[in-house]
Amino acid sequence: MTAALMDAGDFDALVVGAGFAGSVCARQLADAGWSVLVVDARPHIGGNAFDTRDDAGLLIHPYGPHIFHTNGKRIFEYLSRFTTWRFYEHRVLAEVDGALHPIPINRTTINGLYGLDLDEAGVEAFLAERRTDRSPACSSEDVVLNSVGADLCEKFFRGYTRKQWGLDLSELAAGVAARIPTRSNDDDRYFTDSFQFMPADGYTRMFERMLDHPGITVRTGVRFARATTPKPRRQLVYSGPIDQFFDYCHGALPYRSLRFEHQHLAGTERFQPTGTVNYPNEHAYTRITEFKHLTGETSAGTSIVREYPMADGDPFYPIPRPENEALYQRYKAMAEQETGVSFVGRLAQYRYYNMDQVVGAALAASARLLGREDAA
């Protein structure tokens, strides 16, 4: 047993994972008077939202871009306890047929791609003529064809999906493609949420403030093992992979992983016109993000990251297929039989949560542990 966990029984709560799920739970419990030990296998807090400065001094996201957006006022107000914000609306372009076009598809996309000059009604009619009725929509292919038809499906979606997930659109659950809307106006924002901001001092600083509490002890570089770690006095909050918690007794839950290729371009003030550019067809990577768009920093050089999806590696995206959900439900049934353990977060709940959804889940889980009806 790692020496760093030998005293876990001296704390009211042991929180496994220092990302959004674990950190929010830890702070809520500590504010209620609990003593909390937070451990994370990585050498830092913040989970995948961890940010840091590269060798050139620019703030980057080592695990790919994290853009905060939410319609939840309570969630935004809760996080505002630990950060001030920089207003930022994320925009994405996709390289198709040698040119950059807005994604989600909008009026600018249609007109630019096909050399047209349609108004909003014209775009709606254009799409209506090309849609393919695939009702009921059982797969992501059905969703895309129902929305934009075959040509736009091939240009923007099929290749990107195959790279991102290692599967064809027809093999993915309908909910994956349903996350991306289609617009007939010129709105080129990737998200339309009421609150779209970036932490002014970065995510890591926000997590540091969240975990800065006399009732919280944080230890990084520490691996949790259920069989050998003493139980805390009151509750274990687990935000790691649920299949790992149960020693993969039903088999491993499938995930898609990513490899990140970071690059600093000295002497290049601006690399691309928007924060992210997608590459649905050419190139092995799916997208390039330039961090200065996200952070608002200025410098003579710029830092970018290319993302290469992989079958193996750290778990990033649960693969949404019926057989995977069925396997998760077997683990969930086991989790529900555990006493004194809360399973919270993307990996523990095998869900493709946005950051605000993880915060909401953690607030709700904490409220239940504290016997409260509220979720904040």
Number of helical segments with 4 or more residues: 12
Count the beta strands. Answer: 17
C-alpha termini separation: 35 Å
Can you say what the CATH homologous superfamily of the domain at 3-50 and 200-254 and 318-369 is? Answer: NAD(P)-binding Rossmann-like Domain
> What's the overall average pLDDT, rounded?
95
How does the SSE layout of this entry go?
Blueprint: E1 13-16, H1 20-31, E2 36-40, E3 52-53, E4 59-60, E5 68-70, H2 73-79, E6 85-87, E7 92-96, E8 99-103, H3 107-114, H4 120-130, H5 140-165, H6 174-177, E9 195-199, H7 203-211, E10 216-220, E11 235-238, H8 242-245, E12 255-265, E13 276-278, E14 287-290, H9 291-295, E15 302-310, E16 317-318, H10 322-337, E17 341-343, H11 346-349, H12 355-369
Parallel strand pairs: 1-2, 1-11, 2-10, 7-13, 11-17
Antiparallel strand pairs: 3-4, 5-9, 6-9, 7-8, 12-15, 12-16, 13-14, 14-15
Helix pairs in contact: 1-12, 4-5
Structure in words:
This protein is α/β, with parallel strands linked by helices and 376 residues long. Among the domains are: 3-50 and 200-254 and 318-369, Rossmann fold, CATH 3.40.50; 105-177, no CATH class. Helix content is 32%, strand content 20%. The protein is built from 12 helices and 17 strands. A 7-stranded mixed beta sheet has the order 8-7-13-14-15-12-16. Strand 3 and strand 4 (59-60) form a beta hairpin. Helix 1 (20-31) runs parallel beside helix 12 and helix 4 (120-130) packs across helix 5. The longest helix has 26 residues, at 140-165. The chain is globular, with a radius of gyration of 22 Å. The model has no long low-confidence stretch (mean pLDDT 95).
